[in-house]
Design goal:
alpha+beta, 3-stranded antiparallel sheet, 2 helices, 5 strands, about 40% strand
Length: about 170
C-alpha cells in the first residue's frame, strides 16, 4: 500500500458582493493497494469503507502470468496466420513460401475499461490473425462472494507476409 495522490481544496460559497467565503477545507488522499490474492478483496474493501474511506475510484485486475499468456496467444496467432495463408494459396493454386515480414502486437493482461483498437494494413500476400486466451486463475469458487473476478483477456495480433511459390 502506498500514497498515490494528495489534494487540498477549499469549499466555498459566494455572497451578493461577488466575494467568496471559505466554509470548509477538503483534504483528499488517494492510496494504491496491490493484492497478490483476490480472495480477501471484499473484506479489504469493506474494511476501507468502515474506516472512513468514502470513495473507491478504480479497481484493476491483472494477471501475474502475463508473459505466459502473451506467448501462448502469439503462438496461436502465428499458427492461425499460417493456416489462413495456406487456405488463400490453395485457392490461388500456389504454395506458401518463407515469411518475408512479421509484425506482432499484444494486448491485455488486465481488465481495461477503455478497451483497445487493433488494426493494420496488409499489402501484397499477407496473413493477419488475432487470437485471445483467457486467464481464469483467481476466479472465485465461493458462492457467498459477491465479487466475480471473471476472466482477463490477453490478445495477440500477428501480420505475416509470405513469399509465393508455384
Amino acid at each position: 500500500m502506498q500514497t498515490d495522490f494528495i489534494n487540498l481544496t477549499t469549499d466555498s460559497t459566494s455572497s451578493d458582493s461577488w466575494k467568496t467565503k471559505t466554509i470548509a477545507y477538503v483534504a483528499r488522499t488517494s492510496i494504491e493497494v496491490k493484492l497478490t490474492n483476490v480472495t480477501n478483496l471484499e473484506k479489504i474493501l469493506s474494511g476501507l469503507l468502515n474506516s472512513g474511506v468514502d470513495r473507491i475510484n478504480y479497481v484493476e485486475f491483472r494477471t501475474s502470468q502475463l508473459r505466459k499468456y502473451r506467448d501462448q496467444a502469439r503462438g496461436m496467432a502465428i499458427q492461425a496466420a499460417k493456416e489462413k495463408a495456406d487456405a488463400l494459396c490453395a485457392d490461388l493454386g500456389v504454395k506458401r513460401g518463407k515469411p518475408l515480414n512479421i509484425n506482432a502486437s499484444e494486448s491485455g493482461g488486465w481488465l481495461n475499461p477503455y478497451g483497445s483498437y487493433w488494426g493494420a494494413r496488409n499489402y501484397g500476400m499477407a496473413s493477419n490473425a488475432q487470437v485471445s486466451v483467457q486467464d481464469t486463475e483467481g476466479t472465485s469458487d465461493s458462492t457467498n462472494d459477491t465479487l466475480s473476478v471473471g476472466q482477463i483477456s490477453v490478445s495477440a495480433t500477428v501480420n505475416v507476409s509470405f513469399a509465393l511459390q508455384d
